[in-house]
Specification:
about 260 residues, alpha+beta, five-stranded mixed sheet, two-stranded antiparallel ribbon, 6 helices, 7 strands, binds adenosine-5'-diphosphate, kinase, phosphorelay sensor kinase activity, histidine kinase, transmembrane, phosphoprotein phosphatase activity
């Protein structure tokens, strides 16, 4: 009887051990799958500009007697693809660093109002060219944070508003103090996002309309980076949108 109960005890602890080991491995497996998916998506995104460039360069090579003027369209398109790839590689690096523990924010105390104003000034002439009605309401607010990253966050949100808002429509940016936090809001009356896509817009490489986003120069990484920047500042980012009505991004970061 003693031997049988010892055997059952051993068997039970073996089963429990295997069960616990399996449970511990699930998060590692999940994170591994995410990394594999990320590399596959990144490779796919890099392949597209590379093959477009290859086609343009082959055309140039086949017509050695053509002048630069005659081939200007080909050269222009190749340059566009190089720019797209440079931006993509920069975004991929940011995300890769955000995954590693080595990524630290370079925090200083600065005026967030001045930073938002500066980014808004940069966008103003581009908005004007597209005949977009641009307004702002920016409070002067001292905060502690990574200036470069918060600059990047404003750029991403305004760039998206620009890309997905047709001429004649409006874009509004505001920065206000709310209790012990700052509220950054970017609103547009653009094409909006369908309800089925809304839960995924912060996912890496997610684009609700791939063809349109690519035509606008997007690769679906902007909002993933925006979300990482906000979370690294212990803040939160939310989106509200309605198809053909417009989109609103709300960012709340402790001062
Ligand atoms: P992308 O580089 O494609 O713009 P983002 O990660 O910045 O990638 O955005 C993901 C997707 O969310 C976009 O492809 C687009 O479909 C949608 N989106 C983001 N911002 C807006 C906006 N202001 N209006 C409408 N759609 C938007």
């Amino acid at each position: 009887l003693l031997i049988i109960s010892a055997f059952i005890g051993l068997l039970l602890s073996l089963v429990a051990g295997l069960f616990l080991a399996n449970r511990a491995l699930v998060p590692i497996q999940k994170s591994w799958n995410k990394q594999v998916e990320f590399i596959a998506d990144a490779s796919h995104e890099l392949r597209t500009p590379l093959s477009v460039m290859q086609t343009h360069l082959e055309l140039l090579f086949r017509r050695p007697n053509h002048t630069i003027e005659q081939e200007s369209e080909n050269i222009y398109q190749s340059l566009n693809e190089v720019k797209r790839m440079t931006k993509l590689v920069g975004n991929l690096l940011t995300l890769a660093r955000s995954d590693s523990s080595a990524q630290l924010l370079n925090k200083t105390v600065f005026n967030m109002g001045e930073l938002v104003d500066k980014v808004a000034n940069q966008f103003e002439p581009i908005f004007e060219l597209k005949e977009l009605h641009f307004t702002r309401e920016i409070e002067s607010l001292m905060c502690g944070g990574d200036q470069e990253r918060l600059h990047q966050l404003c750029m991403i949100l305004l760039d998206n508003a620009f890309k997905y808002t047709p001429p004649g429509e409006s874009i509004h940016i505001s920065l206000k103090k709310h209790h012990h936090s700052m509220m950054l809001i970017v609103k547009d009356t653009g094409i909006g996002i369908e309800a089925k896509d809304l839960p995924y817009v912060f996912d890496r490489f997610y684009r609700s309309d791939k063809n349109r986003a690519r035509a606008e120069g997007g690769s679906g990484l902007g909002l993933a980076i925006a979300k990482w920047i906000v979370q690294a500042h212990n803040g939160e980012i939310k989106v509200f949108s309605q198809k053909n009505v417009g989109t609103e991004f709300y960012v709340k970061i402790p001062l």
